[in-house]
Design brief:
The protein has 244 residues and is mainly α. It contains ten helices and five strands, in the order ββαβαββαααααααα. The strands form two sheets. A three-stranded antiparallel β-sheet has the order 2-1-3.
Length: 244
């Protein structure tokens, strides 16, 4: 009976940099195959004496492919220095790859048809499950976002210039927020930080003119709602102060 063992998983070790490369090959162990990584082959061509290969598994192609993926993902998870950049669709985003992606997308303008397609998909896309939401929340715990650079702030400002929110979007946000309360009180430290950040700041003439224009277009019904909400807020504050 013919054997199905036709592939093997190998691991190259670069003793000069301590980097590894795990790969899969369908063929004979001694057929001269090196690897498919152009990054590793470039180094290997210059200094082959620094590289040693070890066969870590053999079997059918499908079994070896599955084993290779598990080993590479484990290296990614443990930040093992390696030449591997992807495994079964999972990409290791090195600083070099991030820089290339950034350069590729810099200056790109999304067409209106593209925007419409994204908007249409977002309406039919199923909402994230509670499990997914919790995973996202856990992944962000303790992560402090770096402050935006001045260039990023300018780019965001330019991108939003002239963009008007559709009335139905405002209505949807309003309905979603009705009856909601903040889970935890706003910390006094955060209040003070916001107060200091705003101290001494003045609106530009352009901003003042824009605010006046916005206020002029507010309906009487909206004015009455804002007035009632503000009155209720201060009534509550006075009641809390006097303990009533």
């Amino acid at each position: 009976m013919q054997s199905n063992i036709d592939s093997f998983v190998y691991c190259w070790t670069d003793k000069a940099t301590n980097k590894l490369y795990v790969g899969l090959h369908k063929g004979a162990i001694d057929d001269g195959y090196i690897c498919s990584s152009k990054h590793m082959k470039k180094e290997y061509a210059v200094r082959p004496y620094d590289f040693t290969r070890q066969i870590i598994s053999n079997g059918t192609y499908d079994d070896c492919r599955m084993f290779e993926k598990k080993v590479i993902l484990a290296m990614f998870a443990q930040d093992v220095p390696c030449y591997n950049l992807n495994a079964g669709g999972a990409i290791k985003f090195t600083p070099e790859i991030r820089a290339k992606i950034s350069a590729t997308h810099k200056g790109k303008i999304i067409s209106q048809s593209h925007r419409d397609a994204i908007r249409a998909y977002s309406k039919i896309k199923p909402p994230a499950s509670e499990e997914t939401k919790e995973k996202i929340r856990q992944s962000k715990l303790g992560v402090v976002r770096k402050p935006f650079t001045e260039e990023a702030k300018r780019n965001m400002s330019i991108a939003r210039t002239g963009v008007k929110r559709a009335p139905e979007v405002g209505t949807a946000i309003s309905l979603r927020q009705l009856g909601k309360k903040r889970k935890t009180p706003y910390p006094e430290e955060a209040k003070e930080k916001n107060r200091l950040a705003s101290t001494g700041k003045k609106h530009s003439e352009e901003t003042i003119a824009r605010l006046k224009e916005i206020k002029a277009n507010v309906s009487q019904e909206t004015r009455d709602k804002l007035s009632a909400a503000k009155k209720a807020y201060w009534d509550k504050k006075r009641a809390e102060k006097h303990g009533t």
